Amino acid sequence: MSHRNTIFVEDAEVLAHEAHADKQFILKLRAPQCAANAQPGSFVHIQCDPLMPMRRPLSIMRASVAQGTVDILYKCVGPGLEQLAQKKPGAKLSIIGPIGHGFIAHPDRPRALLIGGGVGIPPMVFLAEALRENNDAHWQPLVLMGSEIPFPFRAKPSTILVPGMPDGAIACMPLLDEWGVPSRLASLQDYPGCFQGYVTELASTWLASLDRGALGQVEIFSCGPTPMLKAVAAIARTFDVPCQVSLEEFMACAVGGCAGCAVRVETPTGPAMKRVCVDGPVFDARAVFA
Predict the structure, then answer these.
(1) Residue 65 has pLDDT above 70, yes or no
(2) Which of 107, 116, 238, 258 is a plausible cystine mate for 124, CB 3.0–4.6 Å?
(3) How confident is the model at residue 5 (pLDDT cuts 50, 70, 90)?
């Protein structure tokens, strides 16, 4: 059991709970064990209320070992998250985490293309921060985010030039810009400065601007709804670059016991059913979307 002794149960304290447009929330929790072991792509299974036994899996957006905190961005959908949205600073929440195998960035492909859609944005922020702090390669991450509801931050024009971007696509996530990590936003909602189209179209446009040598340094990392991930996998095949995807599935136990989140994955020995919670949530895109 590769996840044994790596998943912890904690009574986390709510430190901050910010509300954003369209019932999106950023929750900051004091959870030292989870923070110390979290990796980009891992998630927590959170009890939204003591009267609701079924937990909810939520991706980790940031983790600070020094402060013992984790940040979670979620969209309020369903009665469980409705209850979670009511929690105030000082409240205690039972969490299980960090859960799952995360993204693995390879130094021989330092041009990391991070593609997040909707509630798939948090792992991309986490991965971008990890690459920024990692000195084992000259990482050149580019983060592309797509959303059909207002982004959970106030977008601004980027101060970082990104060759290959379409004219007018200048909006970014301010936090990433402050880190020196270039980002661009995409939407069909005509938001100012955003690429008017799907985030996968924006990714294709940028990849098409690269020569063969530059493409040889690219690896794609993505999280979002399944149709988007299928499109990302197809783009990776078109440009012949490796791609890792983080899958979204309904989960009951989230620790590998119920196998309710199993998906078919191609392995060297043939197809197999893998549990998204502990065998994933990150998989090679070609193994999942063959």
Answers:
(1) yes
(2) 116
(3) low
8-99 in CATH: which number?
2.40.30.10
Q: Which residue has the tokens 């990302």?
A: 232
Phi, psi (degrees; rounded to nearest 5) at 22: 55, 45
Question: 81-88 — which CB contacts under 8 Å span 24+ positions?
Answer: 81/48, 81/56, 83/48, 83/49, 83/52, 84/25, 84/27, 84/46, 84/48, 84/49, 84/56, 85/17, 85/19, 85/23, 85/25, 87/14, 87/17, 87/27, 88/14, 88/17
The CATH number that domain 111-243 falls under is 3.40.50.80
Give the domain ranges of the chain. Answer: 8-99, 111-243
| Strand 243-246 to 171-172 pairing | unpaired
pTM over 0.90: yes
User: Token digits for 121?
Assistant: 């944005």
Q: Collapse the DSSP code of 237 into the 3-class scheme (helix H, G, I; strand E, B; otherwise coil) and give the result.
A: helix
Q: Do domains 8-99 and 111-243 have the same CATH topology?
A: no
